[in-house]
Specification:
homodimer; 467 residues; alpha/beta; Rossmann fold; 7-stranded mixed beta sheet; 18 helices; 15 strands; 39% helix; globular
Amino acid sequence: MTDLSKARILLDPNEVPKEWVNILPDLPTPMTPLINPMNGKPAPFEMAAAIFPKECVIQEVSQEPTIPIPKELREIYAKTYRPTPLHRALSLERELGLKGDKIKIFYKNESISPTGSHKPNTAIAQAYFAKMDGINELVTETGAGQWGSGLSYGCSVFGIKCTVYMVRISFQQKPGRKILMRSFNADVHASPSRFTEAGKSYYDKDPEHPGSLGIAISEAVEHSLRSDQIRYSLGSVVNFVCLHQTVIGQESQIQLKKAGIEAPDIVIGCMGGGSNFSGLMIPYARDKIRGITPDIKIIGVEPTACPSVCKGKYTWDYGDTAKKAPIVKMHTLGHNFIPSPIHAGGLRYHGIAPIVSNLYNNKIIEASMHHQLDVIKAGFLFAKAEGVLPAPETDHAIKEAIDQALLAKENDEEKVILFNFSGHGFFDLLAYKEYMTGNLENYELPDEKIQESLNDPDMPQIDESSF
Amino acid sequence: MTDLSKARILLDPNEVPKEWVNILPDLPTPMTPLINPMNGKPAPFEMAAAIFPKECVIQEVSQEPTIPIPKELREIYAKTYRPTPLHRALSLERELGLKGDKIKIFYKNESISPTGSHKPNTAIAQAYFAKMDGINELVTETGAGQWGSGLSYGCSVFGIKCTVYMVRISFQQKPGRKILMRSFNADVHASPSRFTEAGKSYYDKDPEHPGSLGIAISEAVEHSLRSDQIRYSLGSVVNFVCLHQTVIGQESQIQLKKAGIEAPDIVIGCMGGGSNFSGLMIPYARDKIRGITPDIKIIGVEPTACPSVCKGKYTWDYGDTAKKAPIVKMHTLGHNFIPSPIHAGGLRYHGIAPIVSNLYNNKIIEASMHHQLDVIKAGFLFAKAEGVLPAPETDHAIKEAIDQALLAKENDEEKVILFNFSGHGFFDLLAYKEYMTGNLENYELPDEKIQESLNDPDMPQIDESSF
């Protein structure tokens, strides 16, 4: 390759997108509302605005096809890390024996953000909108810590206090993320904590209780309701978070054009709550719906241990196990489903973003799933070829991209494959260690376990005819 | 700031420098040779070429003002991470109360490389030249692991085997770096090991011996002499390593011009062996020597716990405690000097690059030193302002940049300050944790301890008149 600008495609900071892409008005079927878990009725604006920053609540239901990104926010993106590079995975292609230029693999590198993943894209936005509302504290929960560190960083940018309830078992096992959050000035509490009623009931019985995401959400929501000056913050699932992530896909479209490619054939992202996948694919999904690129294949990738889309049901469910968060219509395994402890902690969510669910249900996007051993092996191959160690979550997208490339090779087809490199694995090295020492295992998931969870009488019953 | 391209200045991958800047022919006084530790005489070419790749040995003594970067190497740089961004530290400036545009702080961000520091710049080059020689294995030692991971990555790019002897205490305390190296396919041995004679003598007595860099060097050198197909690799100190790093400074010159700045007033880097500092400052030092920018201030920053330049002596000394590496003329604290266990492990070297020593002795560059608590505090401030957590080594450059900015503010002077952000601190979080919990300490270094080390009868006696 003599034109090196086609091997790693950079954009000028002035090219940070000026707007977010809102897929809602283009969805083939209308979006279902957020439901108040207290009464089973659509949550009124005021209720949502007591939880989230106002502008985010407006974005959550906006029917505008694009929403402007405030200038101050674009400046933060630009001076810190955006636009992120788009790489042609030339070494990986060679490793896979792809000859010539028939099959091209590109990846969008979100790992160069301050906390090493796509999370700051929405964290900075939420902190900015909170600041605009005069809010002085954001509170959230975190499992492995990617989201907690993203929000800690976002809040530090705008001088807002950040409080994070971190599942105790992760708090103890992942000290790195905890220190990173604290270095951004966040208050990080092991959950269950003694600082909330929700936590105290567990803490008093067992101060070493390992905790769960459900308990941590309950603590964060309770904490956020303490004062008018505090809001709760979410790192995935809801529409406005997916919206904020669309900078990823938009940039990739400009970058591919710079590489002489009108549109990719296959777009791939891993799915936990669905935000990084949405961020990459929404601009492509819109073009597909509008008939501009009707044949584009868009694939969300899940762990076999937690296949919300591949094996779940499209139904109403609580967003959290504690039943404090709004009820949404989504592909879900049931809010009481507890996935096996795979290393891709960010993909251990029982549901998926309503936007992703809607698009899947309308056959605009597809889903696939892979076993832990296969994805870590793929990530390992990628690291050796491309030199960047991926997060275990990202490994899912890599595995699918490799499979698609090899399939195209077998069929002797021309394909441009694009995937989202959602984060690096510098804080998740244990997965690779276990792989290298032969201690990594797959988790089989019997269908009965999913059925049992979905048939739980605890699932919400929502009467759609009432709204 | 409305022109965002001046807040984070990017270059196109095609703008990766085409040549390295060789300072040797411009040095005010001639460079002293490498001395064979066996007989005290200048090491002949053949001897050096039995240790290092041939091209590197040629570069070590070349009098050409520039040396072309091979095309294949430029492609690797370009498709992976180079040119690296140059950031204007706008948030840090605001944090320091710098108003208007009178004082500008820029930093060159080497942390986005595959292993998070500047080390791959020379690692990739050495692996490439080794491959050209038909060498199939490079072996090195590493302390904290930055260099070991850099070389592991470089070797994986060219399919060369990499063997790393890692000081056992770090091997145990920094499992992250070890896993990263292994993910790039390197063989990593805790040193002292049972695989070399040098290691075995310690290992047999105590299999849990904590090790030292000196023993690890001995093991690596012994290992490298086992076969014609193996070479030893160094990550700092020698001329050719400093040469490879000059991509940093050259890129920054182009980037500053894009920001409308002809030349900075102050150039800053931290110094351990001296390679990241050399990489940034050599192009500026050359312009200073040539009278193009006679007033530019160039400052290398050391830890107070290991002040080779600030308090050491310019004399002949062994490059390593084991006295296996060549003897060089440099600023040194004596090869038997053992610095306190500061977190900036990469700055715990008893000497400094002969190039840096020569420039300092000729008053082209200056040196300063700072205490551990002050530098970590500065890094902490930087992280909160700019969102990137620095390596403890890098904190030294940050501390000096802040001090220089505040001095200029006090004197109401216009200044452009440039420093090298040599690496991120994702693998060094313990330093920040100790700072936050009040457990970080300074290490006083009594002058007598340095004198004692320099007066050690073990120091080499070299007769300069004999060559």
